[in-house]
């Protein structure tokens, strides 16, 4: 009986598609920081959930019209609309946008 063997590629072979394991999963977090003259801060974060099924908006509950500290949305537009509503409430209450950042976060 003859055997057909396929030689293994050498170490320089590069796969056309790189697959990442679950240990190296990344998401993007958008973060807005609002401040008052007194130095108090409110941080609002928007990111995809770990399984990419929803967008999650995090803000102290007293500034969210729904009273929730975490809200989930199934589309980005709705999440950004809620963020805009919260930002408007903060600005009307005398808060100023102090910073915005976009951070790549590794999930484990």
Task: Outline the structure in words.
The protein is built from one helix and five strands; from the N terminus they run ββββαβ. By secondary structure, the protein is an alpha+beta fold. It has one domain. A hairpin with a 5-residue loop joins strand 1 and strand 2. The longest helix is centred in the last third of the chain and has 17 residues. It is globular, with a radius of gyration of 22 Å. 11% of the residues are buried.
Write out key terms for the chains shown.
108 residues; alpha+beta; five-stranded antiparallel β-sheet; 1 helix; 16% helix; 36% strand
Structure described in brief:
The chain has 108 residues and is α+β, with helices and mostly antiparallel strands. The protein has one domain.
Cα shape: globular
Low-confidence stretches: 11-20
**Overall pLDDT:** 82
Helix content: 10-25%
What is the strand arrangement across the widest sheet? 4-3-2-1-5
| Main pleated sheet | 5 strands, antiparallel
**CA-based gyration radius:** 22 Å
Number of helical regions: 1
Total number of beta strands: 5
Q: What gap, in angstroms, lies between the N and C termini?
A: 48 Å
Structural class: alpha+beta
Order of helices and strands: EEEEHE
Question: How much of the sequence is in beta strands?
Answer: 35-45%
Query: How many domains make up the coordinates?
Result: 1
Which helices and strands appear, and what pairs or packs with what?
Elements: E1 25-35, E2 41-48, E3 55-58, E4 70-73, H1 76-92, E5 96-107
Antiparallel strand pairs: 1-2, 1-5, 2-3, 3-4
């Amino acid at each position: 009986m003859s055997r057909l063997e396929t030689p293994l590629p050498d170490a320089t072979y590069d796969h056309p598609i790189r697959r990442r394991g679950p240990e190296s999963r990344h998401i993007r977090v958008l973060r807005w920081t609002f401040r008052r003259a007194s130095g108090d801060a409110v941080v609002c974060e928007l990111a995809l959930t770990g399984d990419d099924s929803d967008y999650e908006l995090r803000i102290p509950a007293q500034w969210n019209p729904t009273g929730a500290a975490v809200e989930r949305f199934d589309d980005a537009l709705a999440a950004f609309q809620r963020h805009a509503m919260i930002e408007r409430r903060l600005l009307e209450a005398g808060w100023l946008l102090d910073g915005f950042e976009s951070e790549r976060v590794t999930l484990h």
